[in-house]
Design a protein that fits this description.
This protein has a domain at about 30-100 and about 125-160: Immunoglobulin-like (Sandwich), CATH 2.60.40. Helices cover about 10% and strands about 25% of the residues. It is built from one helix and ten strands, in the order αββββββββββ. It has one helix at about 1-20, and strands at about 35-40, 45, 50-55, 60-65, 70-75, 85-95, 95, 130, 145, 155-160. Strands 1, 2, 5 and 10 form a four-stranded mixed sheet that branches. It has a four-stranded antiparallel sheet with strand order 4-3-6-9, with no helix packed on it. A hairpin with a 7-residue loop joins strand 3 and strand 4 (about 60-65). It is globular and about 60 Å long.
Length: about 160
């Protein structure tokens, strides 16, 4: 009888432990793997932010940041979790200057800028586009993409002047 009670308790404990390990249901819209490759004047663009803006009012934007090969995996809710199938207008932005994160070398963090004439340090340089500014605006980029529910979603964006 004692073995039967111990066996029952072990079964209940195992069932409870396993039921606690279930992954929560993802009630968000279905995403599919999608990637983008960006080139400018035939060369890969590193460090550009690519945004897919849905044309549907119930859609959701997808984002990615290009690597040294100009490639990025897109994400909608989480990094690299894919894009919701549909049609998109696309923007590509790469800036320099201003208060952008990652622009200051770690060796210069906390260091005062050199100012041999004395007085206040010069103001930081205004941010500037490293790609034609038209690609940063959804109304002027002219870039479009479609993410399919199945199949290959490798988007290529060839930027020109």
């Amino acid at each position: 009888m004692r073995n039967w009670v111990v066996g029952l308790l072990l079964t209940v404990a195992a069932t409870l432990a396993l039921s606690g390990c279930k992954k929560a249901a993802d009630n968000r819209p279905k995403r599919v793997p999608a990637s983008v490759t960006v080139t400018y004047r035939g060369a890969p663009v590193e460090g550009a932010t690519v945004t897919l803006h849905p044309t549907s009012p119930d859609g959701r934007a997808a984002f990615g940041r290009t690597n040294a090969q100009g490639q990025a995996e897109l994400g909608t809710f989480d990094v690299n979790d894919g894009a919701i199938p549909g049609d998109y207008n696309v923007t590509v932005v790469k800036m320099e200057g201003g208060d952008q994160a990652g622009e200051t070398p770690s060796s210069e963090i906390g260091a005062m800028p050199a100012n041999p004439a004395g007085g206040a340090p010069p103001p930081p340089a205004a941010p500037r586009h490293l790609l034609p500014a038209k690609y940063a605006d959804i109304n002027t980029s002219g870039l479009r993409a479609t993410v399919n529910a199945s199949g290959d979603n490798k988007i290529t964006l060839e930027l020109t002047d």
